[in-house]
Amino acid sequence: MATRNSLTSLYLSLSPLICEAAARRHSLSTLAPKSQMERAALVRSLSSSSLACTTRLFSRSPLRLSPPSLSSPALPRRSLLRRHWRLLPPSSPSSSRLLFRRPFSSLSPRAIATPPTHSSDVVGSRDDVAEKHGFEKVSEQFIDECKSKAVLYKHKKTGAEVMSVSNNDENKVFGIVFRTPPKDSTGIPHILEHSVLCGSRKYPLKEPFVELLKGSLNTFLNAFTYPDRTCYPVASTNTKDFYNLVDVYLDAVFFPRCVEDFQTFQQEGWHYELNNPSEDISYKGVVFNEMKGVYSQPDNILGRTAQQALFPDNTYGVDSGGDPKVIPKLTYEEFKEFHRKYYHPSNARIWFYGDDDPNERLRILSEYLDLFDASSASNESRVEPQNLFSEPVRIVEKYPAGEGGDLKKKQMVCLNWLLSDKPLDLETELAIGFLDHLMLGTPASPLRKILLESGLGEAIVGGGVEDELLQPQFSIGLKGVSEDDIQKVEELIMCTLKKLADEGFHPDTVEASMNTIEFSLRENNTGSFPRGLSLMLRSIGKWIYDMDPFEPLKYEKPLMALKARISEEGSKAVFSPLIEKFILNNPHRVTIEMQPDPEKASRDEAAEREMLEKLKASMTEEDLAELARATQELRLKQETPDPPEALRSVPCLSLRDIPKKPIHVPMEVGDINGTKVLQHKLDTHNVLYTEVVFNMSSLKQELLPLVPLFCQSLLEMGTKDLDFVQLNQLIGRKTGGISIYPFTSSIRGREDPCSHIIVRGKAMAGRAEDLFNLVNCILQEVQFTDQRRFRQFVSQSKARMENRLRGSGHGIAAARMDAKLNVAGWISEQMGGVSYLEFLQALEEKVDQDWAGISSSLEEIRKSLLSRKNCLINMTSDGIDLANSEKFVSKFLDLLPSESPVEKTIWNAQLSAGNEAIVIPTQVNYVGKAANIYDTGYQLKGSAYVISKYISNTWLWDRVRVSGGAYGGFCDFDTHSGVFSFLSYRDPNLLKTLDVYDGTGDYLRELEMDDDTLTKAIIGTIGDVDAYQLPDAKGYSSLLRYLLGVTEEERQRRREEILSTSLNDFKEFADAIEAIKDKGVVVAVACPDDVDAANKEWSDFFQVKRAL
Ligand SMILES: [Zn+2]
């Protein structure tokens, strides 16, 4: 779970798991404060970016704040898909391998730094101190790559291992990791991951985790379950806050209440629910529902099936997250036993990182570890390697599909290999990672390009190389494949791999990949993810298998060795043998065919109902009465607030610890050739970050839905002189990445929306000229002539939107509501919502019928954008590099047309305001309700941030998630437009959730709150507002504030309002919220049966739209 802020709210709610969708790189923490202010805007921009991989798009999670990744969008990482997060995960990568797929940046965690406290450097020998606390030093190394001293200790009594990493990074990180290999698919590790954070010995409240979300300054707070391990990481820049977080986490994992409290297991895992003996029994449970959502998504089913088929003989052959069909087989006894065995110091690996005192770390740990004796857990938790097959295997699986479209063309096929029967050495692993990037890393990479250009499928599936488990795997395939073409896809993949092995890669491709990887390693831009956490996940990827934890941190030598080998022997000599040995000649191959099955969802539902009916029939009246009583009791417990003394047990900062001023980002507003230029002098280690922003307001209304495809075409269509492969190679060789996406938001107090297209790029400052030349080339010279490629963009975008509808239905619902409430929302929905999906469906045919018309529309978009007057430049770098870059900016601007093309278009469109249900094949719902609260006369005050976060973390968390059984429930206030939205995520309910939303006003009016609680809410909000940001993210947020007219004075005023929030503000806010109950619009993305039932109960409440 992780999270904070505004988003937090979101997150939290969203929490846990996986979030796969979320996946892929979503982050909780991303949302920072400012974010609140910028959130909505971000959402819009993100939602509509065509470039982005699904993740970034629209999810209403932290993501929203992060701009799309600069590096080429990579394929989703499979294991991330398989990882379960308590809250939505941060938008970042991590991964044991070098971070090829790191997102460019994101607004990120918060920071209120405290001065470093390096007492150990001054005071005595560290070894003596270690000895005193019961540790022995195993090894000590200085890691140049991260300028850190790292010491590995062993706790003498229990054998617990500790990596203590010291450096000057204020964003301190702690993590404790247990090996937790499951034996079945009951989801024990996942349910435990949720449950241990629900109260412990020292912190006897319902959810200390949520209290930390509400009231700490954490820059990261979450927990996640892998197929073979469970991680509990926290981070903060404030030392006192950091140690508070560490203590709550240590107490949670070692002394959780869930092993004595059956009701926690029921709530987080599963239970039978019966409100009244005359009604039907149902299954409830947070993890149960979360996993139902996961098992409704075809890409997830594919990933799970592949993993289980590749590893039939070890722990990876089952699902650590839990299969909803199997979860109800789990008993409480098994659950407790699993905790007793594996959550033990002897089975733990612990990580500390940052500028705090290393001695203090050991002292804190010893207080916990000394309470245990050694156990044999670490022998029992070892993962056995899977032996290689002697011949390939084929598996056919069904996935739940809608009625729409031609089912014959909705097959998926994916080839998967287990690369080796043991872990690879670092050098081979690095080479394989490099090979993966060469084959699949960018749209121009040969394997990816050939598959997409074949016309055999809509989009790529399989994540390429996956190396987060004991043995590496490789997967690649297509979805949207016609029945008759499955074999052709398999042949094409095999042939292409063979051809790559025979012919090798073009030297420019190799150089581009090398530059991209090196840039990314040296920039070390982990976005919203704390750097220390990214290092921890890399280290743990080996350490967890009893290998050297230092080695994965030291990339420099193996990278240089690989470079040297490539230049001496040629890339073919390096990579061809790898393709042959690990893929072509490797018999451990699993081919998975997935077939759409329109009846699967209802069949699964029916089977579940039948089982529950049978159960009910077998029960006596007394049994039923008892079950109803237990259901009641559980709900009562969930809805009873924690007593104040228990709440006070969670340590909290005081308002005195909070700086009175917002975080300052330097900005100089200047002018070059008549164009406005913003400059942010920040220490970026010689990287130049720039955004070239074009106002979109003269674009014709009917061209808006083409904008995302226009952006993609600029990067992926090529010029007269350079085909798109060459263009992408140039970008890879000369820069750290370029991305293009639309950004839309309302502006407070103004009718007109803010709408721009942003070209975002980064490069070493010495290559500023190349960067601006490339941006110019992309904008002015790209030709919109490649019909075949454009057709692919359309099918890929359609596949991506369909995926988003299933996995991030809350984002789709939010966009739809916004589109009914304001123009900015309408624009955004045209470029990233259901309207966009409908546009793409129609466009697919039009590409063949009227390509000339489309091509000239793309040209028209370009003409209406490009002009010096329409342009704004934002730059972030060290001062001298900024000054040196100005001449290139000037040249770039000279090349732009000087006249504004057309005058401003008046956009004036909104969707009709009726309630809507978007029906999709799923087992869980996403329910939204929203209204513009400025229409009620409400005027923005800083307290609104505190209140909306509080509503999410208390009322909605308790009612929608805890007792409602949804994975998440939260609210979101777009302070620019005034739209306040309620949203739920993977929700078993529909109308019942709307009742909860409608009860919010009364909840606020009746709220009682002591000073401690209020202080906590304020501090938590400041934590969001002061999100920790790397320099590029600071420069980017400053740009967004400029575009949205948020001044420094306003930031200061809001901050003061936040700090002085009173209970009375909560009560006043109730009136504004009431408008949503009375006049709000409802949009749900939901399963057909629930919508039918709702329309019967509330006579035709929903207008129904079938989207898949
Ligand atoms: Zn979960």
From TrEMBL:
Instruction: Name the needed cofactors.
Output: Zn(2+)
- UniProt keyword terms in alphabetical order: Hydrolase, Metal-binding, Metalloprotease, Mitochondrion, Protease, Zinc
Recorded GO cellular component terms are: chloroplast; mitochondrion
Q: What is this protein called?
A: Peptidase M16C associated domain-containing protein
Please give a single GO biological process term from the UniProt record: protein processing
Its main subcellular localisation, reduced to a broad class, is mitochondrion
Alphabetical list of InterPro entries matching this protein:
Metalloenz_LuxS/M16, Pept_M16_N, Peptidase_M16_C, Peptidase_M16C_assoc, PreP_C
PANTHER family, per database record? PRESEQUENCE PROTEASE (PTHR43016), PRESEQUENCE PROTEASE, MITOCHONDRIAL (PTHR43016:SF13)
Q: Which GO terms describe its molecular function?
A: metal ion binding; metalloendopeptidase activity
> Where in the cell does this protein reside?
Mitochondrion
Protein family according to the UniProt entry: Belongs to the peptidase M16 family. PreP subfamily.
Domain annotation Peptidase M16C associated: ranges = 594-843
